[in-house]
Design a protein that fits this description.
Substrate Binding Domain Of Dnak, Chain:A, Domain 2; about 90% helix; mainly alpha; single chain; 5 helices
Length: about 140
């Protein structure tokens, strides 16, 4: 019964986090939107997406370090294993994205390819941030 309550609690928290994410745009996303509004050309969109990708990657790495510092040895090993698996997924996803968008005709697919990559990294950065929030509430 206790496990069910914990799972329910985690589900409620993750739903709350997703709702907050939808209601409150992350500062990195706000900056991306502002950049896109200023740079409507293909080159401008690629530049905006590339800068945003780098910002989300930095956020991911920051969150990774913060989470590692809060975990015990067993949890750290599990998290490292999960992160290595995610990196393998990311690399395969990027290869697929490159193949898919690279085969398309038209310049509009170039910014779409970069945007796709930043969304993959953004999702992981937010996932890790969610773990941090759960730990801060529960420990």
């Amino acid at each position: 019964m206790q496990k069910i309550l914990i799972l329910f609690y985690l589900l409620c928290i993750s739903t709350s986090i997703l709702a907050q994410d939808a209601a409150q745009t992350h500062p990195i996303d706000k900056k991306y939107d502002a950049c896109l509004n200023k740079n409507g050309s293909t080159a401008g969109m690629v530049q905006c997406a590339d800068e945003t990708y780098k910002a989300w990657d930095a956020e991911l790495n920051k969150n990774f370090k913060l989470l590692m510092a809060k975990l015990n040895k067993t949890e750290q090993a599990q998290f490292k294993t999960a992160q290595v698996a995610w990196l393998a997924f990311r690399d395969k996803e990027f290869a697929l994205s490159d193949a898919l968008y690279g085969s398309m005709q038209g310049t509009m697919y170039i910014p779409m390819a970069v945007d796709n990559k930043l969304k993959v990294v953004r999702a992981r950065a937010l996932e890790i941030a969610g773990y941090l929030e759960v730990l801060e509430m529960g420990r």
